Amino acid sequence: MISSIFERTNPLNFIILFLYLILFLLLRQVLSSDFVLDSTMIFHLLKCSAVVFFCVIMVDFIVRKNELTQRNSYALFFFVLLFCLFPNIFMELNVLLAHFFLLLAFRRLVSIRSNKDVEIKIFDATLWILVATYFFNWSLLFIFLVFCTMFLYKKNDYRNMLIPFVALFTLAILGFTYFYLTDQLSQMTQLFNFQVDFIFEKYSNLSYLVPLLFLLIMGGWACVMFAFKKQSKSFKTRVPGILLVISLITAVAVILISEVTNTSEVLFMLFPLAVIQARYVERVKINWLKETILWSYICMPILVLFL
Question: Is 106 in contact with 149 (CB distance < 8 Å)?
Answer without folding.
Answer: no
